[in-house]
Design brief:
The complex is a heterodimer of chains A (110) and B (115).
Chain A lengths: L3 E3 L4 E4 L4 E7 L7 E6 L6 E6 L3 E5 L2 E6 L4 E6 L8 E9 L3 E4 L3 E6 L1
Parallel strand pairs in A: 2-11
Antiparallel strand pairs in A: 1-3, 3-8, 4-5, 4-9, 6-7, 7-8, 9-10, 9-11
Chain B lengths: L3 E4 L2 E4 L5 E7 L4 E9 L6 E7 L5 E2 L8 E7 L2 E6 L8 E9 L6 E2 L3 E5 L1
Parallel strand pairs in B: 2-11
Antiparallel strand pairs in B: 1-3, 3-8, 4-5, 4-9, 5-6, 7-8, 9-10, 9-11
C-alpha cells in the first residue's frame, strides 16, 4: 500500500462545476496535510494546508480532513479552465519530510 | 510572502562537467530546505533534506558524492551535480520551510540537460 494514494485521473469537469479531488494516507500519526497545484512544466504551488478534522475554506477551495478515515479531499467550486493542472496531495511524515501522492490530473472543459 | 527562487532556471552542460543550482528563500528564513527531482509525467522524488549549518540527509539510493548539497545560510542552499551524465537530465526543484512551520514552498525549478 502506498503511503499517500490519489486517483491519477484524468478527471474531467465542466466549467463552473465542482471538482472533487481525493487522497488517502496510511500513516495514522500524520498531522499535517497539504494540497499543491502543479501546472505542466512548472513547480508545485501550495494552495491549501489543513491540520484539524473538518473543513477549511479559502476562496473557491475547500479542504476536508477526516483523520479517522485517513482521508483528505479538495473541492474546487466554480471550476475554471485555469484550474486545469495536476493536484498533489502531501502528508507530513515525521518531523520534516512530506510524502506526496502521484497526483490527480484535472481538466476543466469550457 | 514565502517566495523561493532558483537559479538558473535551465542549464545545458556537457557530460562529465559539474553544475551548481542555487535555491534562495527571499522573504523568510529557511531552516530546512529540500531538493527534489522530477522526471516527465512522474511525481516528485525527494533527494535530500538539509538543515542550515548541518550536513544534508540523503534519501536511500541518492549518491551523496554525486549530488553535493550545502546549506550555509538561512536563505541559501546549493545543489551541485558532479560529473553529470545524460541520465542526470531532469527537473530539479528545491523547497524551503521556515522555523516551526510545516508548509514547504517550492522554487520554480531548474531544468538540467546533460549532453
Amino acid at each position: 500500500q502506498k503511503e499517500v494514494e490519489q486517483n491519477s485521473g484524468p478527471l474531467s469537469v465542466p466549467e463552473g462545476a465542482i471538482a472533487s479531488l481525493n487522497c488517502t494516507y496510511s500513516d495514522r500519526v500524520s498531522q499535517s496535510f497539504f494540497w499543491y497545484r502543479q501546472y505542466s512544466g512548472k513547480s508545485p504551488e501550495l494552495i491549501m494546508s489543513i491540520y484539524s478534522n473538518g473543513d477549511k475554506e479559502d476562496g473557491r477551495f475547500t479542504a476536508q480532513l477526516n483523520k479517522a478515515s485517513q482521508y483528505v479531499s479538495l473541492l474546487i467550486r466554480d471550476s475554471q479552465p485555469s484550474d486545469s493542472a495536476t493536484y498533489l496531495c502531501a502528508v507530513n511524515k515525521g518531523a520534516q519530510k512530506l510524502v506526496f501522492g502521484q497526483g490527480t490530473r484535472l481538466t476543466i472543459n469550457p | 510572502g514565502a517566495v523561493v527562487s532558483q537559479h538558473p532556471s535551465w542549464v545545458i552542460c556537457k557530460s562529465g562537467t559539474s553544475v551548481k543550482i542555487e535555491c534562495r528563500s527571499l522573504d523568510f528564513q529557511a531552516t530546512t530546505m529540500f531538493w527534489y527531482r522530477q522526471f516527465p509525467k512522474q511525481s516528485l522524488m525527494l533527494m535530500a533534506t538539509s538543515n542550515e549549518g548541518s550536513k544534508a540527509t540523503y534519501e536511500q539510493g541518492v549518491e551523496k558524492d554525486k549530488f553535493l548539497i550545502n546549506h550555509a545560510s538561512l536563505t541559501l542552499s546549493t545543489l551541485t551535480v558532479t560529473s553529470a551524465h545524460p541520465e542526470d537530465s531532469s527537473f530539479y526543484i528545491c523547497s524551503a520551510r521556515g522555523l516551526n512551520a510545516y508548509e514547504q514552498y517550492f522554487g520554480p525549478g531548474t531544468r538540467l540537460t546533460v549532453t
